[in-house]
């Protein structure tokens, strides 16, 4: 299932157009999109209050004089941290550079209070637009929603609506009528249309991804918060079984963790025991050896799987007794993997236990079985991206390209994990010729 398009609305003032979007979203008129962030370049903008009243996260990114590059870099970071896919300018009184807009081709919408190409371009904003319309004596004006590019008001038009100009109009009365009769109607409609188009494109790419293999670095760079992740695969030279497990955290409790090796196993302990809030979700063995099997999970289901295997029962049977984590409203999935070694080769399984709905009313269980293929691996993680609540991973494990060198593989993962959120990483290569084990372990706090 394709997730809703994550929208950021950029504002500078009162936010009436923002309110129109929020009202349309509440009414179900934007089914494929969700406003997840409102950003203002003015710390006292009333639009921020509107967002807070609607339960939407806010951010203030101030623009200093002659600091376009710095301002846009800060803005890009905020957008990336929230997994934003579509930007809507709703009374955002600053022009974005061509370098910025080029990174968001047809993913930035703007509403302009005139019928483009009339009364548009640099210098035409706010009441100036309506003053010019009255000065020219036009009988009809209106509003336009368009994509943003390097030319002010020069991007492709998405929607327009005409509004009559009355003989007694002032710039203020005309501005109000254009907002009420045009802007507040066509902006939410255009947002819904673009979100629908993005959904269609995502669905097309999702189908194509079945046949594509990605670089793990590219997947991690594009996701500020995959949560906890497991990678399993075979090196391109066919000599090693490889697995990696990483953890990330946003809260003080979840960031207060380190990996420690204990023989062939790995344990997670608090970095500072005095700060532990809930030990049940952060202290566990993510990696355990069990005969000719290697178990990797994101929770204490590692021990459940080991105990079942020792009794001659299966990986699947063990996970039938477990569920997603009880950390409402996120309901973090439990992800697991098991490598099974046989002679000079191996196969592997991956599993995710996740809530079937947003209420955590039941558990969905998915298991995937793979033969080992030179150079091919699979990546499963707990979250699709950052958010509140955090969106659950929703596809089958992603295909990834493996590397022959354990240090290069470890470095690629660690360096591309989000710097603010990454906590620890464990990587193991197992020789398929003699069973020799090579480990790499990185802790941010040590």
Written account of the structure:
With 446 residues, this protein is an alpha+beta fold. It folds into 2 domains: 5-207, Rossmann fold (3-Layer(aba) Sandwich); 213-443, Inosine monophosphate cyclohydrolase-like (Glutamine Phosphoribosylpyrophosphate, subunit 1, domain 1, 4-Layer Sandwich), CATH 3.60.20.20. 27% of the residues lie in helices and 30% in strands. Helix 1 crosses helix 6 (171-209) and helix 5 packs across helix 6 (171-209). The longest helix is centred in the middle third of the chain and has 39 residues, at 171-209. It is elongated, with a radius of gyration of 26 Å. The mean pLDDT is 92.
Secondary-structure topology with pairs:
Elements: E1 5-11, H1 16-26, E2 33-40, H2 46-53, E3 57-60, H3 68-81, E4 86-89, H4 98-101, E5 108-112, H5 127-136, E6 140-147, E7 157-164, H6 171-209, H7 216-221, E8 229-234, E9 240-248, H8 252-255, E10 257-262, E11 265-270, E12 287-290, E13 293-297, H9 301-310, H10 315-319, E14 334-342, E15 345-355, E16 363-371, E17 376-381, E18 398-401, H11 406-416, E19 422-431, E20 437-443
Parallel strand pairs: 1-2, 1-4, 2-3, 4-5
Antiparallel strand pairs: 5-6, 6-7, 8-9, 8-17, 9-19, 10-11, 12-13, 13-14, 14-15, 15-16, 17-18, 19-20
Helix pairs in contact: 1-6, 5-6
Structural domains: how many: 2
Strand content: 25-35%
> How is the CATH topology of the largest domain named?
Glutamine Phosphoribosylpyrophosphate, subunit 1, domain 1
| 3D shape | elongated
Query: How would a crystallographer describe the biggest sheet?
Result: 7 strands, mixed
């Amino acid at each position: 299932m394709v997730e809703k398009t994550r929208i950021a609305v950029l504002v500078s003032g009162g936010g009436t157009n923002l309110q129109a979007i929020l009202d349309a979203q509440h009414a179900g008129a934007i089914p494929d999109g969700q406003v997840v962030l409102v950003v203002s370049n003015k710390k006292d903008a009333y639009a921020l209050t509107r967002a807070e009243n609607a339960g939407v996260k806010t951010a203030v990114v101030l623009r200093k004089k002659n600091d376009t590059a710095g301002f846009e870099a800060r803005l890009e970071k905020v957008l990336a941290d929230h997994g934003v896919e579509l930007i809507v300018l709703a009374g955002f009184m600053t022009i974005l550079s061509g370098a910025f807009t080029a990174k968001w081709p047809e993913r930035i919408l703007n509403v302009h209070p005139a019928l483009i190409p009339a009364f548009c371009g640099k210098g035409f904003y706010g009441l100036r637009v309506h003053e010019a319309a009255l000065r020219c004596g036009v009988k009809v004006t209106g509003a336009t929603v368009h994509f943003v590019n390097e030319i002010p008001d020069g991007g492709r038009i998405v929607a327009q609506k005409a509004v009559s100009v009355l003989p007694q109009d002032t710039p203020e009365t005309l501005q109000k009528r254009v907002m009420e009769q045009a802007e507040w109607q066509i902006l939410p409609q255009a947002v819904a249309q673009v979100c629908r188009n993005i959904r269609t494109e995502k669905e097309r790419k999702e189908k194509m991804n079945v046949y594509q293999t990605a670089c793990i670095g590219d997947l991690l760079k594009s996701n500020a918060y995959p949560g906890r992740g497991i990678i399993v695969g075979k090196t391109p030279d066919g000599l090693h079984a490889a697995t990696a497990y990483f953890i990330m955290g946003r809260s003080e409790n979840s960031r207060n963790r380190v990996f420690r090796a204990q023989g062939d196993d790995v344990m997670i302990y608090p970095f500072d025991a005095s700060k532990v809030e809930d030990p049940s979700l952060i202290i566990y063995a993510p990696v355990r050896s069990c005969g000719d099997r290697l178990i990797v999970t994101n929770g204490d289901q590692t021990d459940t799987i080991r105990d079942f295997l020792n009794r001659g029962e299966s990986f699947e049977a063990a996970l039938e007794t477990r569920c997603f984590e009880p950390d409402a409203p996120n309901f973090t999935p439990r992800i697991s993997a098991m490598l099974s070694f046989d002679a000079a080769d191996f196969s592997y399984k991956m599993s995710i236990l996740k809530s079937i709905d947003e209420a955590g009313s039941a558990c969905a269980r998915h298991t995937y079985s793979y033969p080992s293929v030179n150079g091919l691996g699979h990546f499963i993680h707990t979250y699709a991206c950052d958010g509140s609540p955090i969106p659950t991973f929703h596809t089958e494990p992603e295909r990834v390209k493996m590397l022959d060198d354990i240090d290069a593989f470890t470095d690629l993962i660690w360096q591309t994990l989000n710097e603010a959120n990454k906590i620890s990483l464990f990587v193991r290569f197992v020789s398929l010729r003699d069973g020799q084990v090579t480990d790499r372990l990185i802790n941010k706090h040590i």
